[in-house]
Structures are given as structure tokens and as C-alpha cells.
Specification:
Layout (H helix, E strand, L loop, with lengths): L12 E2 L9 E5 L19 H13 L4 E4 L4 H8 L5 E4 L4 E3 L5 E3 L4 H17 L4 E4 L3 E5 L7 H14 L4 E6 L2 E6 L4 H9 L8 E6 L8 H6 L3 E5 L9 E3 L2 H15 L2
Parallel strand pairs: 1-13, 2-3, 2-11, 3-4, 11-12, 12-13
Antiparallel strand pairs: 4-5, 5-6, 7-8, 8-10, 9-10
Helix pairs in contact: 1-7
Length: about 260
């Protein structure tokens, strides 16, 4: 099976305790970065601590804050409501500006119908697996059913081979995902960096998973800060934070340093 893999550029170093944060354009992954990964995607909430932190960052960075996730845009809006922040769902294929304007990449429907039906039927036959239809991406989770990992891999490989002209197969934490080519966090970050309020700011991207690796080279090319959460022997990130708790604590320190 062919899966995207990270490029080994050496070990990441701890992120500096303080930066010139007022000129940062901040991009945050959601699951595994802002909140811990749950046993089921629907079990996740945004606690008051994170909600307050995002609100403070949105104000202090003058809107140059975006949450970018593999989740659907509808899910992100529900989880973060009523915060008026820029949101990017489906790895950037769907997005909402801070003023509420929504956008979405165009998508052919025939393949999505086939993939959705095939994977829904697979999940029903393999109890414990969780199928997520994200419109632009289709994920199979096997965290609660590790005995079905091989079946998940075989099925996703077969479907990828049938639709490889439009989809790529990637691997996350106890999940496999078929992502439409419109789903690419690196291109999504570049799009935002070309527009206000992100333009002419130094990008800082924090993420914990394979799909975040797509954004790290873009951030590095802009002289920014690419941060991998957790251990990753292979990563294009240049910095590291060890956990969600470290991410939150580090960001809170930056907000305090910017307070009058």
C-alpha cells in the first residue's frame, strides 16, 4: 500500500518560550493539538479553557488566527461557536472567513457517492470501526477495533486504486483516509498568507498529524515556525511541543506577554 510519508530532516527542537508574537499569523490543528484525541470523533468538545484562549488570540492577533482541521466545516463551526474565527475544514477544501463568509472547492459527485456507500457498508460489517464521510475525505477509524486494521487497510487500498486520479491515501493515528486532492493544508495556508489579515505576518503552524506535514514546508519557506506536537522521528517541522497541554500552556504564555 502506498501512503504519504514524512521527510526526515532531523529532530525537532523545543519551541522558544517567547516570540515576537504580535506579528504572528497563527494556524492551529484541532484534534490532537487544541484538544486531546478522543475514542470517537463525536466525543470531542471545546472546553472553556480553549474557548477563552482562542477568543483572546483572535483579539490580540487582530484576526490572524485560523483553525485548520480534517473535520468538516460544519463540525468546526458547531464546536467553536460563537467564536468569529477563520475556520478551514476538510484539510482546507472548505473554509469560513471570520466574517462568516463560506467557501468550498468544487467536487465531482460520482466518486463521492461510491466511496461513501462502500465504506458505510464496510463499517457496518466490521463492528467497532468508525466511518466518517467528510464530503472531500473519507476516513476509517479502527482505534476501538484494532483487530480490523488489516481489513481497513485492504479496503482503503482497493478504493484508492480505483480513484487514485482524484484521491490520495494517507494514514493518521489509528485511521486511514482517502482525501480529495483539494484537501491540502499547505495550499490552504498559502492561500491565507496571500490575504489580510494574515498577509505580511510570520506564520506559525502547530499540528500533530500526517496531514499537518503538508503545511510545514510552506511555513518554513516563509521563515515561520512549524511545530509538531508529540514525538515524530520523521517530520518537516522544525520545532516540537510534547502534548496538548504544552500547546495550551505555551499559547497562554504568549497571550500574557502581549497583555498591557
Amino acid at each position: 500500500m502506498i501512503l504519504d510519508t514524512e521527510t526526515d530532516i532531523g529532530m525537532q527542537t523545543p519551541l522558544p518560550s517567547a516570540l515576537a508574537f504580535s506579528n504572528i499569523a497563527l494556524f492551529l490543528d484541532f484534534d490532537g493539538t487544541l484538544v486531546p484525541i478522543a475514542s470517537h470523533p463525536d466525543a470531542v468538545t471545546l472546553p472553556p479553557r480553549q474557548r477563552h484562549l482562542l477568543s483572546t488570540l483572535q483579539t490580540q492577533l487582530e484576526g490572524a488566527l485560523a483553525v485548520i482541521s480534517g473535520r468538516r466545516l460544519d463540525d468546526l463551526e458547531y464546536l467553536t461557536a460563537p467564536l468569529p474565527i477563520t475556520l478551514l475544514g476538510c484539510h482546507g477544501a472548505q473554509w469560513r472567513d471570520s466574517d462568516g463568509t463560506r467557501h468550498a472547492a468544487r467536487l465531482e459527485s460520482e466518486a463521492t457517492v461510491h466511496l461513501s456507500a462502500a465504506l458505510a457498508e464496510f463499517s457496518q460489517r466490521h463492528p467497532g470501526t468508525v466511518f466518517e464521510d467528510k464530503t472531500y475525505a473519507f476516513a476509517l477509524h479502527y482505534r476501538q477495533a484494532p483487530q480490523h486494521e488489516r481489513a481497513c487497510r485492504d479496503t482503503m487500498t482497493r478504493l484508492w486504486q480505483a480513484h487514485r486520479d482524484a484521491y490520495q491515501l494517507t494514514e493518521g493515528k489509528c485511521l486511514l483516509e482517502l482525501r480529495h486532492h483539494a484537501c491540502h493544508k499547505g495550499r490552504a495556508v498559502q492561500r491565507l498568507l496571500d490575504t489580510p489579515p494574515f498577509r505580511q505576518r510570520t506564520p506559525l503552524f502547530i499540528g500533530d498529524d500526517r496531514t499537518d506535514e503538508d503545511a510545514f514546508p510552506v511555513v518554513n519557506a516563509h521563515g515561520g515556525f512549524s511545530v509538531r506536537v508529540g514525538e515524530a522521528a520523521q517530520s518537516q517541522a522544525t520545532y516540537r511541543l510534547d502534548s496538548v497541554e504544552e500547546v495550551l500552556s505555551w499559547l497562554e504564555r504568549q497571550t500574557r506577554s502581549m497583555s498591557p
